Amino acid sequence: MSIGKLKSGIVAGRLSKETYVQNFADLHTPLGSHTARIEAERCYFCFDAPCQTACPTDIDIPLFIREISNSNPLGAAKTIFNQNILGGMCARVCPTETLCEEVCVREEAEGKPVKIGQLQR
Fold first, then answer.
1. Separation between Cα atoms, residue 69 and residue 86, nearest integer Å
2. Minimum mean pLDDT among 30-39, 83-92, 109-118: which range?
3. Which residues lie across from 11 on neighbouring strands?
4. Is residue 2 over pLDDT 50?
5. DSSP state letters, 26-81
6. pLDDT above 70: percentage of residues in the chain
7. Which phi and psi angles does 5 have, rounded to 5°?
8. Under 8 Å between Cβ of 49 and 61
9. What does the domain layout of the chain look like in residue ranges?
């Protein structure tokens, strides 16, 4: 068996860009900076923050959303990573719709929560 060849005879190699995008794309498309700021401004920045209480990693959700609304994505990332070093991965795999977004005050009042998971991404 030669290097780079699998048992089945298939040669191992890199996926094409198209195949990679098709197979590993995010379920939800990322928000652009303008759209993210608009979505962040929907947050009430609650003092008792039920979204933060529902977060298993206790990320300061109102703070990182406020930093996004103030055009400070680096500060938002630092807030997330200070609490959870895997914050980037968690933004993709955490069921935010049944945790933080489900208890969002906007969800209770309007039936449309702040898109916390997409803002974290």
1. 22
2. 83-92
3. 5
4. no
5. -SSPPPPHHHHHHHHTT----SS-HHHHH-TT---HHHHHHHHHTT-HHHHHHHHH
6. 88
7. -105, 130
8. yes
9. 31-120
Q: Which CATH superfamily is domain 31-120 in?
A: Alpha-helical ferredoxin (1.10.1060.10)
The first and second tokens of residue 1, run together, are 């068996």
Per-residue tokens: 60:
């300061």
Helix (H, G, I), strand (E, B) or coil at 4: coil
**Residue partners of 15: CB distance under 8 A and separation at least 6:** 23
- Poorest-pLDDT segment among 20-29, 54-63, 87-96: 20-29
Instruction: In whole angstroms, give the CA distance from residue 31 to residue 115.
Output: 10
Residue located via tokens 């807030």 = 79
